[in-house]
Amino acid sequence: VTKPQTLSDKENISIVVGSAEWQKRAGSSSQEFRDRRLMRESGANVSRIEIQMPKEKIQFQKTSDRWKMIGQDKWLIDQNKVREILNKLNVTEAIEISALGLPENKEELDWGFRDAKKSLSIRLLGGKEEILWTGRFAESKENIARYLSSNPHRILKINPSDLGYFFQLEARQFRDAHD
User: Fold this and answer.
1) Which of 79-88, 114-123, 163-172 shows the lowest mean pLDDT across its residues?
2) Which 3 state secondary structure label does DSSP give 125?
3) Confidence label for 173 from pLDDT (cuts 50, 70 and 90)
4) Of the candidates 149, 124, 131, 130, the residue with the CA atom closest to the CA atom of residue 61
5) Burial grade of 24 (CB within 10 A; 0-12, 13-18, 19 or more)
6) 163 pLDDT above the threshold of 90
7) How far is 94 from 38, CA to CA, in rounded Å?
8) How many angstroms separate the CA atoms of 99 and 157, rounded?
9) CB neighbours of 38 closer than 8 A, spacing ≥ 6?
């Protein structure tokens, strides 16, 4: 990252030298500099993952350094696929921040969280079963994907293709190929 530098001469004329990125961002609002990642929690702190979908609930518990699927004790679980969920939550960025804080009842309805065409909830828990983070995804009838998160509470508009990744999750896809 290059920092702008001011060069002055004897006539009190200032010239700002910087990259094109600085020039582009100079007119930006503070809203554009906010962290838009879905999840800000470190995956290393997570000991349990719960994914609630309309037809299925998938739960993972970390024991020692291995993820196990609750209810499928005999399955070997592909550890990379479980880590991929946490990574996807951490690197996916919103298109825009729609609102900060918890939504009002009317906003939940307007943004499609109440009568969603599709919906999904994810909850991440830490060491003593404390809730580290929760997220609710919803796709409205108008095909607008929204996301409601805790830590911090905010509503984000996300790319529908990013939402598609989470809606395609199924328990059997986490079974290790060598099992």
Assistant:
1) 114-123
2) strand
3) very high
4) 124
5) exposed
6) no
7) 7
8) 9
9) 89, 90, 92, 93, 94, 135, 147, 149, 156, 158
Question: Which tokens sit at 54?
Answer: 């309309």
- Looking up tokens 């404390």 gives 130
Alpha-carbon torsion angle 55, 40, 97, 104, nearest 10: 60
pLDDT at res. 97 = 87
Residue 110, both tokens: 């307007």
Contact between 17 and 7 under an 8 Å Cβ cutoff? The reply is yes
Residue 169 is which amino acid? L
Amino acid letter, residue 107: E
Flag the least confident range among 26-30, 41-45, 137-141.
26-30
DSSP category for residue 91: H
H-state helical runs in the chain: 20-26, 79-91, 105-110, 160-167
Token pair of 169 as six digits: 């999750």
- pLDDT at 15 (0 to 100): 57
User: DSSP code of 55?
Assistant: S
Rounded mean pLDDT, 69-80: 94
Pair type for strands 14-17 and 66-69 = unpaired
